[in-house]
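Final report, Chapter 2: Outcomes

The project's central promise was a pipeline that accepts a single protein chain and returns its three-dimensional structure in a standardized token representation, suitable for archiving and comparison. That pipeline is now operational. To close this chapter, we reproduce one record exactly as it appears in the project archive, with the input sequence first and the structure output second.
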Amino acid sequence: MSSGAVTTQIPRAAADTLRQQLRVVAEEEYLRLRTIDRPALLLRGVAGAEAGEDPDVTTAELEVVDERIAALDHFLHRTSTDLTSAGRVLLVDRGDGPEYLLVSELPVVDERVVAADAPLGKALCDAVAGQTVTYVTPSGSCEAYVIATEPIEPGPALPAGAYGVPAAEVLVGFDGSPSSRTAVAWAAKEAALRARPLRVLHARASAEPSVRADGTLSEGIQLALTDLGADRIRATAVTGQPAPRLAERADRAELVVVGRGGETDNGLGPVAEKVLSGTSRTTVVVPPAEPPARGRVVVGLHDSWHAADALSVGFAEAHRRGAHLLVTVIRDAARGTHDLEPAFHAPDEQDHAEALHLPAAVAEVGQAYPGVQVRTSVQTGHFSTVLTELSNSADLVVLGMGGRAHGMGRKELLVASHARCPVIVVRESSGRGEF
């Protein structure tokens, strides 16, 4: 093995060339998985379910493909702005002469790339020029001499499990009921607006045959295909009660969507109520019949001092839809005050304070959305009654939780139960960056 080195530092241009070649390999795999492999698996699963075949293998394969797509997507996005984060390049001699190797956290099938968690990758991670490292292979212990390295600044740290956790997605529960069908259709449109993948989750009872469960899941996929390409739809069948299974998956989601359920048009089903009360993620409740587009988004608030998160969601949704925005603070008709205001303030003083503060709060958030037309108001009435009435002429009602990050108040549950359009319940500081 060679022990002499002409240089101890690799030119940055040479290292970047190898990193760029890794990006090309990753891009090719990403496109193949999204446009060929994944759609083929989806179609095979649908055909198999219709033929009564056991879908468990196909479902497991889809999960593996989805995780790999997410890994490649994260890698390509990060390295598009910081190429050095693709990995560290070293010039080494393993006994067959000098060779450039790239130690990367993204494993690929390429002789020039060494996975960072492989024995050789771990050995080379902190190696310096002139060092001989030892690593274990199936054939036994081996050595590699480090001829040269490159001094690179570390890229942004990867989140824990970045290559095993799917990218932010819209999550929707589906059980085959009319309410859940409407929810999937709405969620697919929302995923398209947000440029996010959609995950359709079906929670089956332990006694339900897997073939029947996958048939239900296939129906959900078919509904979503109306607005999304097959490469943007993910499907998961789990065993257990729907609400806790949705809550478990919610931490990976940007938005959770559920059908209102219930036995009547003005009822909130147990699954929707449990999801609303049990998750800290921003959640949408979709009514049994989605209304036609009306070009207006309504933000309903208890006060304007806890409005930033709800306003951000409201502006973003209005912007996506090309809709007008109405932001209203609703004061309780019975007491002249909302739940979180000190009781000793006189109603007229409180109204005056809201009238002064609300436009300022709206203007601050609205700077990022100059194209959205917005109107503000302070209204007196019952919170649920006012918003239910406003929902008759809205595409979406956005509820601010008045500073609460968990749980649901009776007023919010009533709005979600009776509104004639989808209702977004915004948890304080619950988003994943972009609403």
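Archive annotation: The chain has three domains: 12-149, 168-280, 291-435.
This record, like all others produced under the grant, will remain available to the consortium after the project formally closes.
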